[in-house]
Design brief:
heterotrimer, A mainly alpha (about 325), B alpha/beta (about 325), C alpha/beta (about 325), A: about 325 residues, mainly alpha, MetI-like fold, 2 domains, 13 helices, C: about 325 residues, alpha/beta, Rossmann fold, four-stranded antiparallel beta sheet, 11 helices, about 25% strand
């Protein structure tokens, strides 16, 4: 087990290193020069020079990369071009909002998606299953900004039930009112993310459940005299969840910073929105930091998903 | 029996498979086939029997260089085919062909069976025109008991037995001298199995073929073979002419194997030797004699000393410490 | 001898994608007497596995029952409610499947998988008693150090050991009827010998319905034999009657086609052609087009079942001598 974890963590660090490198170079391939954005033409040349030095932009790309990797390894993601705050501080301000959204969406997705997938599989080719299949196709193929605008128009503009954007109404209220206010703001972004993700979860759960129900050991369980409810719960569920959990792990990991469109449309102050803003303002350090956060969360969730799968499936030996 | 000349000599053929270790993980080794030595005589049928893990299929593939062997030689017409370059090999491989167990998997579902057979004929320039190739294919179809109109059909239109006939026709297309049949009748129903066994015998007489017939079924092997080689965990345990193997069984494993076969008859049941335990894994075979963990005649010596192959009687080879004395005497 | 299980003109088929039902089993009739071991013999596609799944009422969704009865202890199983069937499965009628590799749940330990049979049918037993019973049962089927094995998972067992686990599972409630579907087909010869040995020891505790294509296995274990071809029972009788005096051309052919350790080198008898697919059965005798003694009547009309002795029946148009 310890052996396995060490191997997994080494692998994870390698993955993160590679993604950090790719991020570094891709950002520098963008057809814009951060210097022009960073320095005000009204500044004197000495001030400009000093500023370039401060951000390390006077050095060669290679050297910049070395410095970037060194800093990243020591937990320093640099200074934001725009706010002049440390990138870690910027990300830490945004991360809780993303995690809040993520928590709501993941809970809903798993709690609603898995049972629906199971039920659809059990009643395969029935009316319910056919209906769910249509919803899955819609959920997977829907264009998120379109859905978001439709929600905004209907709930916020037309019905005036829900706020149009942000995470709370400024100035922030106190105590319970604040929580209620945030909850009202979270409804639409959660719903949007939920629709896209739940379809994937239902699809995977349904398909793996259908496969599992065809297995010989399910027939064996029936031959012992148990009813369908018991067989599904004790014999099929664990086996069917294995692929779902792997997918859920990737889904959760990529939602940290991956919900760019949703967070942007609703003005939700999370990491996704931060990525969007940093791209428009050419804020390289923040962009790098956000992408590294994304990579770390994907890798971490992957490890967690693997551990859960190993716990469910005794055939996977972690010792080896 | 073996008065005929040797067609194939196998010397110390060994094949180890590396077991994949993952990232930062140690590797293991499957000792699939170890130090196999035998001669194959012209026009004989050599049966190779063994249970799972015996390495019989690996041996079949290693013989034809379909697998890269770890060490050893396979001498055909004075040349070690395991050393030959690919260009020289193709000439020889033409004369050594293989028929596999699963006729479903070994035929391309989208190619007409006639073309499947004709393709190697053209590729190896056995004939010069496609018309001649077609003619030859039609003759082959007739030879294996299929009608000429079947040339135009696809594999899925055939039953299991017919597909195995097609596989045989394809193997025969290059006019081989030796045919290695790996579980060639195992996937077939009993009534169809008899048809294919008869076909093998009939082709052998017609075309003067030499067979290596690999099977897990001792009764089938007994029926078709002149000599039988019994394998266990990658090694030959006993090698003898068929009649002698059954009338005068030396090795305890062969004895147990013969007695384990349930006979479809009401005539008095033979006394059965039931071996205890499971077949050990070829990754971690027992020390000394590989069969000792299940042997009912095991001795002290078996644990420490690996038994050598002994010719206990003429042409009857056994790997067992019980017969060591015979060699010394 | 009282009858434990009776198949009475049982017919069933499978629905294809268009909803057309193709008949497979046609008027299957045979009995299993108390304490007897009956071998159901046939090649692939003859409907032998479907026959035993019908007893358990575990047929796949596409199966359609077209008529007849399956009577267990005087009661038609086809008329039972799902709830009643659940009480019968595992307790009165239990089953061993062909593939020990896939028939056990990979994520549950062996102790649990055997124990849950008792949990279902013996509510009077507590956890401790169940555990002891399972340990004893594992010992009975020859699994060494059973207590340690309880907590292990199927992948930690070899094929032969898994089949022993399946046997332990199927026999723990001491069923009156044990159905074994090709129980040794997936096993090596020396392991098959071990499993046959266990089955021989256990079979006296009830009746056995053994489905197999291997006539050797039948000879080893069974008292009676039912020979099936393309969904019909072509011949049935006692072991001696079928093996020493086979009458149906198919049974005769099957016997002659198998090379045995005592057979010589002469050409094997072979039945021409192959087993027909279920959508290409002929209206009359389904064996007609492969039969060596075929005549006009065979193709058009289903042959009558003729009784040759108290227990020997043949479904064929040929005339046979009646023996007593």
């Amino acid at each position: 087990m310890a052996n396995y974890l060490i191997r997994r963590i080494l692998k994870a660090l390698l993955t993160i290193f590679v993604s950090a490198t790719i991020v570094f170079f891709i950002i520098r391939l963008m057809p814009a020069d951060p210097v022009t954005l960073l320095v005000d033409p009204k500044m004197g040349p000495e001030v400009q020079q000093a500023m370039m030095q401060q951000f390390g932009l006077d050095k060669s790309i290679g050297l910049q990369y070395v410095i970037f990797i060194q800093q990243t390894l020591s937990g320093n993601l640099g200074i934001s071009f725009k706010t002049r705050e440390p990138v870690t501080t910027v990300i830490m301000q945004k991360l809780p909002w993303t995690l809040l959204l993520l928590f709501i969406v993941v809970t809903l997705t798993l709690v609603i998606g898995i049972p629906i997938g199971m039920l659809a599989a059990k009643k395969r080719d029935g009316l319910f299953d056919k209906f769910i299949n249509v919803l899955i196709v819609m959920g997977i193929s829907i264009f998120i900004p379109f859905l978001s605008f439709a929600f905004l128009y209907f709930f916020a503009y037309y019905l005036k039930l829900l706020p149009t954007g942000g995470a709370y109404t400024p100035p922030p209220a106190k105590g319970f009112d604040y929580i209620l206010d945030v909850a009202r703001h979270a409804i639409l972004p959660s719903l949007t993310l939920f629709i896209g993700n739940v379809a994937t979860i239902i699809l995977y759960t349904r398909n793996s459940m259908i496969d599992v129900l065809k297995e010989d050991y399910i027939r064996t369980a029936f031959s012992k005299g148990w009813n369908e409810k018991y067989v599904v719960r004790r014999h099929a569920l664990k086996n069917a969840l294995i692929p779902t959990i792997t997918v859920a792990g990737i889904m959760i990991g990529s939602m940290v910073g991956g919900a760019v469109m949703t967070e942007t449309v609703y003005g939700w102050p999370g990491v996704g929105r931060l990525i969007y803003d940093s791209v428009s303002s050419m804020d390289f350090p923040v962009l790098q930091g956000a992408f590294i956060t994304l990579a770390v969360s994907v890798v971490v969730m992957n490890i967690i998903a693997d551990l859960v799968v190993a716990w469910l499936d005794p055939r996977i030996k972690l010792g080896g | 029996m073996p008065m005929a000349e040797k067609i194939l000599e196998v010397k110390g053929l060994t094949k180890y498979f590396d077991v994949q270790g993952g990232f930062l993980k140690k590797k293991g080794q499957v000792r699939a086939v170890e130090n196999i030595c035998f001669d194959l005589y012209n026009s004989e049928t050599l049966g190779i029997v063994g249970e799972s893990g015996s390495g019989k299929s690996t041996l079949g593939r290693a013989l034809l260089k379909l697998l890269k062997s770890t060490s050893g030689e396979v001498v055909y017409k004075g040349k070690n085919i395991l050393d030959l370059s690919d260009t020289n090999l193709s000439l020889i491989r033409r004369e050594l062909q293989m028929v596999f167990q699963d006729p479903y998997a070994s035929l391309n579902p989208r190619i007409k069976v006639g073309n499947t057979i004709a393709e190697p004929i053209l590729a190896n320039k056995m004939v010069s025109t496609s018309g001649q190739a077609r003619e030859k294919t039609l003759k082959l179809l007739e030879l294996v008991g299929l009608r000429p109109e079947m040339y135009e059909r696809f594999p899925h239109e055939f039953s299991g037995g017919q597909r195995q006939r097609i596989s045989i026709a394809r193997a025969l297309a290059l006019e081989p001298k030796v045919l290695v049949c790996d579980e060639a009748v195992s996937a077939l129903d009993v009534s169809v199995q008899a048809q294919i066994l008869n076909l093998f015998n009939q082709l052998k007489n017609q075309l003067d073929l030499t067979y290596i017939f690999i099977s897990h079924d001792l009764a089938v092997t007994k029926y078709i073979s002149n000599r039988i080689m019994v394998m266990y965990l990658g090694e030959v345990m006993e090698l003898a002419p068929t009649e002698k193997l059954f009338s005068k069984t030396f090795h305890p494993y062969t004895e147990a194997l013969i007695s384990a076969i349930p006979e479809p008859s009401t005539k008095g049941k033979r006394k059965r030797i039931i071996l205890e335990g499971d077949i050990p894994s070829p990754i971690d075979p027992p020390s000394g004699c590989k069969f000792r963990t299940r042997c009912f005649k095991t001795m002290k010596k078996c644990k420490n000393v690996h038994p050598e192959m002994v010719e206990v009687e003429s042409n009857h080879f056994v790997r067992c410490h019980l017969y060591d004395a015979r060699k010394e005497a | 001898m009282p009858k434990l299980l009776e198949f009475r003109n049982f017919s069933m088929g499978f629905k294809d994608d268009d909803g057309t039902v193709h008949n497979l089993l046609n008027n299957v009739t045979f009995d299993i007497e108390e304490g007897r071991a009956v071998g159901i013999v046939g090649e692939s596609g003859c409907g032998k596995s479907v026959t035993n799944l019908s007893v358990m009422r575990l047929l796949p969704r596409s199966a359609v029952i077209q008529g007849g009865k399956i009577i267990y202890r005087g009661q038609n199983l086809l008329k039972k409610t799902d709830k009643e069937m659940e009480d019968i499965r595992g307790k009165d009628v239990a089953m061993i499947f062909q593939e020990p590799m896939t028939s056990l749940n990979p994520v549950l330990n062996i102790g649990f998988q055997i124990g849950e049979v008792l949990k279902k049918h013996r509510p009077d037993m507590n956890e401790e008693q169940i555990k002891n019973a399972v340990t004893n049962q594992l010992e009975l089927v020859g699994i060494p150090s059973p207590e340690k094995r309880l907590k292990q998972y199927p992948h930690q067992f070899s094929g032969g050991m898994r089949q022993r686990v399946m046997i332990a599972m199927a026999t723990i409630c001491q069923p009156d009827l044990l159905i074994a579907d090709e129980p040794t087909t997936a096993l090596d010869v020396t392991i098959q010998a071990q499993v046959l040995d266990i089955m021989n020891r256990l079979k006296d505790k009830g009746s056995l319905m053994l489905v197999t294509h291997n006539l050797g296995v039948v000879a080893e274990i069974c008292n009676d034999v039912v020979v099936m071809y393309a969904g019909t029972v072509v011949e049935k009788g006692s072991m001696d009657e079928i093996f020493d005096n086979p009458c149906h051309p198919y049974t005769k052919g099957l016997m002659a086609a198998i090379p045995t350790l005592s057979s010589g080198k002469e050409e094997l008898y072979s039945i021409p052609g192959t087993v027909p697919l279920s959508n290409k059965f002929s209206a009359g005798c389904r064996f007609a087009d492969r039969c060596s003694q075929y005549f006009d009547l065979c193709q058009d009309k289903v042959p009558p079942t003729r009784q040759l002795s108290a227990s020997h029946y043949v479904q064929c148009w040929l005339d046979f001598e009646r023996r007593e």
